[in-house]
Write a structure and sequence with these properties.
Number of helices of chain A: 7
Distance between the termini of chain B: 34 Å
Radius of gyration of chain B: 19 Å
Helix content of chain B: over 70%
Shape of chain B: elongated
Number of strands of chain A: 10
Helix content of chain A: 25-40%
Strand order of the largest sheet of chain A: 5-8-9-3-10
Strand content of chain A: 15-25%
Order of helices and strands of chain B: HHHHHHHHH
Largest sheet of chain A: 5 strands, parallel
Radius of gyration of chain A: 16 Å
Number of strands of chain B: 0
Number of helices of chain B: 9
Order of helices and strands of chain A: EEEHEHEHEHHEEHEHE
Oligomer: heterodimer
Structural class of chain A: alpha/beta
Structural class of chain B: mainly alpha
Shape of chain A: globular
């Protein structure tokens, strides 16, 4: 589902290569660093890598970026305007995903409820934005989900609910890539943990 | 597109109240007409009430419309617009769609501005006994200048990080442009030139979101240092 070959996102760092099959969760354990941030940005199709190649469901983002972005989603709290409510944000995500022909796993209200948020919750706290970003990542049916420090700022209850949702997600035909500096976070949801020395 | 428009409108409305700004703008213009209607204009300035009102309207656009548009585009950053590209990844849409939505909402704000004060212009034309053609030119000129204000603020928002500085820059630039426009020899030119320049600037702001549909390449040392 996801194939990464010699991906270099920051000058002077070694390239990374791995594959994630459908239904597989690959975890990367690496402390916070510029290199890790750049690699995650490249994997989430935010930033063009310096070299290397990615294939998402056989689509090369370097050739077909818009098509590749329809097959992937990511946990990106920085995308959320703190003045919105959780319902407004997730409804917009659902409408735009549906418009581009995508399917949804559930309605926005159901996903929010599972993560312990209400539609009217204002996203003016870091924790609320992180949870809403996770809800947005869980909402569409896509080939690849990229999660970067997914449990940071979450309460214990929210963390537990997110882990439960991610475990259900891995039974679907979706590949998950998760990076974190916390080993318990990575191991909680990953089928295999890959050493990622290049990100240190 | 409607979902994106709703997202931009909701965000910008919660940053600043359009109704308050529009009411302030309308009250200022109506107050000017009410105060100077009897004397047919400010005594120290021998232009007609209609032309003087146009000046007041331009000042209103330069100060208030730029504020609203700055809030519509805010917060943007010169790193390639991380928030818009992130939204593009989450929603599976093209990054240009978000910038287009911001441009559409900005132009809607400009039209609301002009519509708010249109009755005051009609009243001023009748009070000043000006020909109908003058009113047409003044209204077109007002629309053109509002478009220019939108374009200038949109571009400023793409290159300046702090929203307050975006507004200050755009307001100052719009004031200078308002004075410069008066140097043009013809009423039609005073209406069309700001409109064309403004539309070009808006297009530039939208297109600037398109080439870096990725974030800027991995050469931004400042960002690396901040991680």
């Amino acid at each position: 589902m996801l194939r990464v070959e010699h991906l270099v996102a920051l000058t002077g760092r070694p390239g990374i290569s791995f594959e994630a099959a459908a239904g597989e969760c690959v975890g990367f354990l690496a402390p916070a660093s510029a290199a890790r941030r750049r690699c995650v940005d490249a994997l989430a199709l935010l930033r063009r890598p310096l070299s290397g190649r990615m294939l998402i469901a056989d689509v090369d983002p370097a050739q077909q970026l818009d098509r590749a972005r329809r097959s992937i989603t990511a946990h990106l709290p920085e995308a959320i305007d703190p003045r919105l409510t959780a319902g407004e944000f997730l409804d917009a995500v659902a409408a735009l995903r549906s418009r581009s022909g995508g399917l949804l796993r559930d309605s926005p209200a159901v996903i929010l409820d599972r993560l312990g948020l209400s539609s009217k919750t204002r996203l003016n706290t870091v924790a609320a934005r992180h949870t809403a970003a996770m809800a947005a990542a869980l909402l569409p049916v896509v080939d690849v989900v990229v999660l970067h420090d997914p449990f940071t700022h979450l309460t214990d209850g929210a963390r537990r609910r997110v882990i439960e949702q991610l475990r259900q997600l891995s039974s679907a035909p979706t590949a998950i890539v998760v990076t974190s500096g916390r080993e318990d976070d990575v191991r909680a949801i990953s089928h295999r943990v890959v050493p990622w020395e290049g990100l240190r | 597109m409607s979902a994106l428009l709703a997202l931009v409108v909701r965000s910008s409305l919660r940053r600043t109240s359009w109704l308050v700004i529009l009411a302030l703008h309308g009250a200022g213009v109506i107050g000017f007409v009410a105060a100077w209607a009897r004397t047919n204009g400010v005594p120290l300035w021998q232009a007609s009430l209609l032309i003087q009102l146009q000046g007041v309207e331009r000042l209103g656009c330069a100060v208030l419309l730029t504020w609203v548009v700055a809030r519509v585009w805010s917060p943007q950053s010169p790193d390639g617009g991380r928030r818009d590209i992130s939204v593009s990844v989450i929603t599976g849409t093209n990054a240009r769609a978000m910038a287009s939505a911001r441009a559409v909402v900005s132009m809607a704000a400009a039209l609301a501005f002009v519509a708010t004060v249109a009755p005051a212009f009609v009243a001023a034309q009748r009070i000043a006994n000006a020909p109908g053609a003058d009113l047409t030119i003044v209204m077109l000129s007002t629309c053109g200048f509002a478009t220019f204000c939108v374009g200038l603020t949109s571009v400023a928002a793409r290159v300046i990080t702090r929203p307050l500085m975006v507004w200050v820059t755009a307001a100052a630039g719009a004031c200078v442009a308002a004075l410069s426009t008066e140097l043009l020899p013809d009423g039609w030119l005073r209406a069309s030139v700001p409109a064309i320049v403004g539309a070009t600037l808006i297009l530039g702001a939208v297109l600037r979101a398109s080439p870096p549909r990725w974030l800027t390449d991995a050469t931004d040392d400042e960002e690396v240092a901040n991680v």
